[in-house]
Amino acid sequence: MTATIEHRPAEAHNHTHGPDCGHLAVIHGDHVDYIHDGHAHREDGGHYDECSTCQCEHCSDACSSCECADCSCPTCNHNTCQCEHCSDACSSCECANCSCPTCAHAA
């Protein structure tokens, strides 16, 4: 059985995303998303793809800019580590032995 991974190339741009491109840059897990016109683009092997969208049934925001109050999406940026002694965002948590199910490094 072969697994299919969704690949969503971003629309063509007249520039390369980067620190001075004029678009908001947001760290999202192990990459940077460039936010503009309702899209979140991430570099992938020399081209840009649309980044992940919140999986909550009532939300369609990009995970890097989602603002759901009750978000349960495992890839959204605003989740906070659920470990007892940590209050970092899941996208930047550095807990040793982290057990939080939404942290980027959780096993």
TrEMBL record:
PROSITE patterns tied to this protein: BOWMAN_BIRK (PS00281)
GO cellular component: extracellular region
GO-annotated molecular function: serine-type endopeptidase inhibitor activity
InterPro entries: Prot_inh_BBI
Start and end residues of each Bowman-Birk serine protease inhibitors family domain: 51-66
Identification of the protein by name: Bowman-Birk serine protease inhibitors family domain-containing protein
